[in-house]
Amino acid sequence: METFYSREELKHLGIKSYGENVLISRNAILYTPELLEIGNNVRIDDFVTIGGKVVLNNYIHIAQFCGLYGAEKGIYFEDYSCLSSKGIIYATSNDYSGESMTNPMVPQKYKPTDINAPVRLCKHVVVGCMSVVLPGVTIGIGSSVGAMSLVCKSLEPWGVYAGCPVKRLKDRSKKILELEEQLKNDCI
Q1: Which of 5, 11, 53, 102 yields a CA-CA distance of 20 to 30 A from 21?
Q2: How many CA atoms lie within 13 A of 145 on its CB side?
Q3: Mapped to the 3 state alphabet, what secondary structure does 47-104 carry?
Q4: What is the pLDDT of residues 88-107, one digit of tens each?
Q5: Could you give the CA distance from residue 178 to residue 34 in angstroms, rounded to a whole number?
Q6: Which has the closest alpha carbon to 92: 55, 136, 59, 132?
């Protein structure tokens, strides 16, 4: 048995839309495939869980054991972005302050202060393994987030970030922009 669904099998998963060269592991869990939009050259590995609105543009990789919880507001991956193993992204979260009840089995009217806000990984963003990204965060173009980081605020472009909570450590090289152009030229 193949590791990834065939092109023919993808048609039966109920995915909203998908492009060419899409590799989805047979061991991935897609709770709401009708809200999942996938571009070209996208790979979703084993034991990834995806729920809610999620948009994956082109040249995206979601590594093993990741969780994408887009809810209604959504998670958006721009071109060439990726999430390393065991990374988690939340576009929704309960309020843990005690002002609201928690957990999905409690009716929404008892959770008035839930947090729901879109998350965006801009072009060329990489988020390291075991990192967590919280609702409302935008990670600016070209930025990288080191392993085991907590991203609870938006990050400026072209930075190398790490920590819990995340802090900017240094600027990130823009060499990847040259490599992107070479890739585009090779694909013509």
Answers
A1: 53
A2: 37
A3: CCEEECCEEECCCEEECCCCEEECCCCCEEECCCCEECCCCEEECEECCCCCCCCCCC
A4: 999 999 999 999 999 999 99
A5: 36
A6: 136
